[in-house]
Amino acid sequence: MVPGALAVLTGNAVSDPRVTVEIGDVARRIRRTAVEGGDGRFDAIVLDLYRGPHAKTHQSDDPLYGSRAIENMRAALKPCGVVAVWGENYDESFDKRLRSAGFTVTTDRPGRGGLRHVVFLGQLKQSKKTGKHAS
């Protein structure tokens, strides 16, 4: 891939041989990876979209922030995988859905003063016995 204008800001990440750029429906890609599993699972899933989780997000059926979508993210991650989701505001119900799916959740409100958005960071808990995802 030819480096673009943001290459300087990302350390030219897209030129790293471990990086694959895919243009498509992110929810569909996560679902496909969840079903296929194996070595194709992700170390991290980062959702930095126009609209993050919010109070009107359908709690089970939303394709990105609902409980089914979160279960797909969980299944699409490698053990100890991480999910990071940007939001305009803190959404307590989204935080609870992440925790219910087995993520340890922290939030950060980067920046200072004015309107400050939130980043949800969820890390999969690992079973002490098996070293795999906790159920």
Topology:
Layout: H1 7-10, H2 26-36, E1 42-47, H3 67-76, E2 77-87, H4 92-100, E3 103-108, E4 118-124
Parallel strand pairs: 1-2
Antiparallel strand pairs: 2-4, 3-4
Helix pairs in contact: 2-3
Q: What can you see in these coordinates?
A:
This protein is an alpha+beta fold and 135 residues long. The protein has one domain: Vaccinia Virus protein VP39 (Rossmann fold), CATH 3.40.50.150. It has helices at 7-10, 26-36, 67-76, 92-100; strands at 42-47, 77-87, 103-108, 118-124. The protein has a four-stranded mixed sheet with strand order 1-2-4-3. α2 (26-36) crosses α3 (67-76). The longest helix has 11 residues, at 26-36. The mean pLDDT is 86.
- The assigned CATH architecture is 3-Layer(aba) Sandwich
Q: Report the span from N to C terminus.
A: 39 Å
Number of strands: 4
CATH hierarchy, class: Alpha Beta
List keywords for this structure.
alpha+beta, globular, 4-stranded mixed beta sheet, 135 residues, Rossmann fold
Quick overview:
The chain is α+β, with helices and mostly antiparallel strands.
